[in-house]
């Protein structure tokens, strides 16, 4: 029998990069969902700066929003966050991990530098690798105790097949390479963690109005995240290891 996420409530979720954009919208939509998770770990790389103010306001208003510091490129920050999250989980599993934090820098074949290539790879690929590795212990399940899921927020620009369609306008070499690498990482998680009851999926959120997506983007964060929430709440074993867009349509690798 197929086990879907709709078989059980999402009682705990951790979102990286939730200070703004798509990550912040996930926090807000989980709060508004019919059965909000008991623990929403809203993580942000700088809890002291002004960028965490919206999250601070949310956590003052909602006791299920727990602010946690995570810089996805810092193994010590990730390790410290696991200790804190574990205390709040009180022996329960982490049901859902959303690897959302990411950066895009503009580069073309001529201007791409090794520094930028490595920096973008570090945030967009090493980050989700480190975070998932660290939280695996809290997500893995014994047979018959339900499912956990990892959602990697990827991008159409990482699709090999799609390169010709947007290359002239968006060469973004480091970003494309990082998202293609993230996709294979997601598939590795799907295969490697299958026996632990963990589903892994890569989702392209669409072109979304955020600091990264700019005002020119056609989709609002509300519409993009609303559609991704539907996918997440109905995830099945069959979808593990796939790459889909916000509407659930398969994207070619
Ligand atoms: P934003 O630029 O609006 O937000 C990016 C988020 O990532 C911020 O919260 C930022 O934190 C965080 N972040 C960056 N570096 C780190 C780090 N080292 N550690 C922790 N957090 C970090 O982008 P979006 O909301 O648009 O993008 C979210 C995801 O969606 C990304 O993975 C992006 O690639 C993907 N995506 C977005 C698209 C779009 O059109 N917007 C299209 C396709 C994919 P801080 O505030 O501290 O900088």
Quick structural gist:
This is C-factor-like. The chain has 253 residues and is α/β, with parallel strands linked by helices.
The molecules bound to the chains, other than polymers, are: NADPH dihydro-nicotinamide-adenine-dinucleotide phosphate
Portion of residues in beta strands equals: 5-15%
pLDDT averaged residue by residue: 95
Order of H and E elements: EHEHEHEHEHHEHE
Main sheet specs: 7 strands, parallel
- How many runs of DSSP E, i.e. beta strands? 7
Q: Which sequence of strands runs across the widest sheet?
A: 3-2-1-4-5-6-7
Helix content: 25-40%
End-to-end Cα distance, whole Å, is 28 Å
Structural class: alpha/beta
> Which of globular, elongated, flat, extended, rod-shaped describes the shape?
globular
Low-confidence region ranges:
none
Radius of gyration: 17 Å
Number of helices: 7
Report on this structure:
This protein is globular. Strand 6, helix 7 and strand 7 form a beta-alpha-beta unit. It has 253 residues and is of the alpha/beta class. Helix 3 runs parallel beside helix 4. It has 7 helices and 7 strands; from the N terminus they run βαβαβαβαβααβαβ. It has a 7-stranded parallel beta sheet with strand order 3-2-1-4-5-6-7, with helices on both faces. The protein binds NADPH dihydro-nicotinamide-adenine-dinucleotide phosphate. The site of NADPH dihydro-nicotinamide-adenine-dinucleotide phosphate has 32 residues, from helix 1 and helix 4.
């Amino acid at each position: 029998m197929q086990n879907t996420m709709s078989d059980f409530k999402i009682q705990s979720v951790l979102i990286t990069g939730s200070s703004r954009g798509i990550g912040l919208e996930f926090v807000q939509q989980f709060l508004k969902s019919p059965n909000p998770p008991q623990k929403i770990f809203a993580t942000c790389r700088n809890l002291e700066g002004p960028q965490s103010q919206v999250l601070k306001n949310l956590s003052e208003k909602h006791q299920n929003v727990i602010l946690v510091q995570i810089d996805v490129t810092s193994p010590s920050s990730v390790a410290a966050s696991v200790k804190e999250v574990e205390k709040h989980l009180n022996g329960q599993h982490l049901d859902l991990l959303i690897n959302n934090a990411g950066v895009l820098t503009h580069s073309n074949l001529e201007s791409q530098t090794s520094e930028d290539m490595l920096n973008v790879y570090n945030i967009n690929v090493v980050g989700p690798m480190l975070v998932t590795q660290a939280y695996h212990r809290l997500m893995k399940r014994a047979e018959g105790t339900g499912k956990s899921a990892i959602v990697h927020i990827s991008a159409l620009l990482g699709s090999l097949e799609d390169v010709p369609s947007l290359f002239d306008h968006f060469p973004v070499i480091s970003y494309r390479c990082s998202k293609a690498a993230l996709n294979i990482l997601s598939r590795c998680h799907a295969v490697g963690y299958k026996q632990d009851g963990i589903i892994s999926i890569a989702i392209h959120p669409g072109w979304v109005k955020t600091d990264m997506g700019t005002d020119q983007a056609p989709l609002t964060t509300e519409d993009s995240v609303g559609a991704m929430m539907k996918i997440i709440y109905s995830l099945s074993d069959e979808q593990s290891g796939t790459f889909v867009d916000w509407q659930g349509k398969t994207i070619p690798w």
